[in-house]
Amino acid sequence: MGEARPSYEFTADSRILDVVERSESGRRLLFEHGYDVGNGFVDVLSQYQSLREAARGGRLRDVPALLEALNRRS
Q1: Residue 19 contacts residue 53 (beta carbons within 8 Å)
Q2: Which of 10, 49, 54, 64 has fewest C-beta within 10 Å?
Q3: Do residues 33 and 65 make contact, with C-beta atoms less than 8 angstroms apart?
Q4: Confidence of residue 38 (pLDDT cuts 50, 70, 90)
Q5: Total domain count for the chain?
């Protein structure tokens, strides 16, 4: 048998909400990369922001490492 593939492949175009909802460690990994989701989204629109947009806006760092961790653990 081959190595199991994640059921969802995260990309730079994945939304913040996708990360939180589809990965058990998503909230923690986002925090480790500079994005604090908190207990909910203060700005409702931020949950629909892509990882790329969050990085461009300075709210998220090292997206390639984040994606590697998400896709390894999802």
Answers
A1: no
A2: 64
A3: yes
A4: confident
A5: 1
* DSSP letter for each residue of 3-71: PPPPSS---TTSBHHHHHHH-TTHHHHHHHTT---TTS-SSGGGGG-BHHHHHHTTS---HHHHHHHHH
Does 26 map to a domain?
Answer: yes
Q: The tokens of 31 are what?
A: 């925090």
Q: Is residue 2 part of a domain?
A: no
Amino acid identity of residue 68, one-letter, is E
Q: Is residue 48 part of a domain?
A: yes
Give the domain range for residue 60: 16-73
Q: Are 50 and 40 contacting, i.e. CB atoms less than 8 angstroms apart? A: no
Residue 60 counted as domain residue:
yes
In tens, the pLDDT along 39-72 reads: 665 566 778 899 999 999 999 999 999 999 999 9
